[in-house]
Amino acid sequence: MSVRAHPMERLLDVLRHQLGLTGAKEGCGEGECGSCSVLLDGALVNSCLVPVLQAQGAKIVTIEGLAQGSELNALQRAFLDFGGAQCGICTPGIIMAAFHLLAKTPRPSEEQINEGLSGNLCRCTGYAQICEAVAKAAGEAS
Ligand code: FES
Ligand code: FES
After folding, report:
1. Is the CB of 34 under 6 A from ligand 1?
2. 43: which strand partners?
3. Which residue among 49, 72, 95, 105 has the highest number of C-beta atoms inside a 10 angstrom radius?
4. Which of 14, 38, 48, 63 has the most ligand 1 atoms within 8 A of CB, as the residue to mutate?
5. How far, in Å, is the centroid of ligand 2 from the Cα of 88?
């Protein structure tokens, strides 16, 4: 996919407004909440802080890229099963952070899950269901 954009436009805005990929959400807009998380060449980034210039030629993965057609990714299924999503604002970013974690650490400990999700804030769930969902997805994938 290619787009024309001002080099300093935020990657989050280009994804949402030009490409219609509205999965990544804007929470704080200041790099604090992680709701806008996407993968940029395999690195987890806050897309609200990334000028689109930095994404030129890069491989971007958003939450829309995880499902295979109508088949949800194991993390997405586990979030549904465990109630890891409530209002849903944080959910795409948390799932991207978890996806990034499991790519590096397929069987994470509880501590590694907490650390892997430490850049993502959730105001609804209290995090327990989120961590359970990640552990379940990790168990399924291994
Ligand atoms: S909206 Fe990007 S970190 Fe909060
Ligand atoms: S589910 Fe509402 S902020 Fe996380």
Report:
1. yes
2. 40
3. 95
4. 48
5. 5
pLDDT in tens, 53-74: 999 999 999 999 999 999 999 9
pLDDT, tens digit, for every residue of 71-94? 999 999 999 999 999 999 999 999
Confirm whether pTM is higher than 0.90: yes
User: Is residue 120 lining ligand 1, measured as CB closer than 6 Å?
Assistant: no
Report d(CA 41, CA 19) in Å as an integer: 18
Q: Which tokens is 37 given?
A: 């998380």
> Whole-angstrom Cα distance, residue 118 to residue 106?
17
DSSP 11-77: HHHIIIIIS----S--SSSSSSS-TTEEEETTEEEETTS-BGGGGTT--EE-GGGTSBTTB--HHHH
Cα–Cα distance, 142 to 140 (Å, whole number):
6
Number of the ligand 2 atom closest to the C-alpha atom of 85 = 1
Mutate to test the pocket of ligand 2, among 25, 90, 120 (most ligand atoms within 8 A of CB): 90
Ligand 1 centre from 142 Cα, in Å?
A: 31
